[in-house]
Amino acid sequence: MTAPRLRVPTLAWVLLAFILVLVFLVGYLLGQRSVVTTAAPEVAAAATELAEVTPGTRTEGPVPGPDGRFDATISGPGSEITSAGDILKVHRRDPADPFAVGALDAPVVISEFSDFECPFCARFANTTGKLLLSDYVDRGLVRLEWNDLPVNGPAAEDAARAGRAAAAQGKFREYKTALYTATRGIQGHPGHDTDDFVRFAEQAGVPDLERFRADATDGTFDEAVAAAKDYGAGIGVNGTPSFFIGEQFISGAQPTEVFEELITEELAKVARGDVEVPELR
């Protein structure tokens, strides 16, 4: 069953897109970086507040349906976006989300918009992404959520369908790791085909490879991939990888230190009570 798509007012998209344009512009003026970083003393002050942050403890993951499959059609925001002030609603915090990793009630959520054909996405996954998992996700401080944004042509859309086919069998994280590990040394777009996807699925431990191949190629996830792509474009994300870190936006595979600064700032907001972790259903 395809999950219903959340309706987001056009005005809200326009407002969010306007905010992102401003972020890009400021980043360019500060040396063509798409993030405004905090001065070192302010970062240090923020770090001292982190002792007040309570790590997330709700680690329950998605539950398969009666057919043993997970809902791999999920896309879009956590709830209806009605204004630019709803930026935190970009994060789903959905217990049924088979693409996410980390505590549901983690103080900070990072929503990633990526493309399996993107070499910069592979660079992030093989460097900073691994550090975020060990230093923040495993400690209950950050939840990582994935959003398909296949902007690199038909091969990227094929890869997104295959990722969802793996997610339907509860193996998205392992599949993503296998794919990005295989593309670590490739310059440019890898141009994977169905046989490659099946090979990555086998490495990931996807139990039913025949069903995986069918799901990846028979149109099962066409609508879901299109919806995810429309969602990213609708909020002004037009390049990969891109990230919403709490309330802040960053574009590109920036140095690890940039991610650490922004995560520290967002955790400090929670520690001060400036941002509240939403109550979960």
TrEMBL record:
TM annotation in the entry: 12-31
InterPro entries in UniProt: DsbA-like_N, Thioredoxin-like_fold, Thioredoxin-like_sf, Thioredoxin_domain
Keyword Membrane: yes
SUPFAM superfamilies registered for this protein in UniProt: Thioredoxin-like (SSF52833)
PANTHER family: DISULFIDE BOND FORMATION PROTEIN D, GLUTATHIONE S-TRANSFERASE KAPPA
Family of the protein in this entry: Belongs to the thioredoxin family. DsbA subfamily.
Protein name per its UniProtKB record: DsbA family protein
Lineage of the organism: Bacteria, Bacillati, Actinomycetota, Actinomycetes, Mycobacteriales
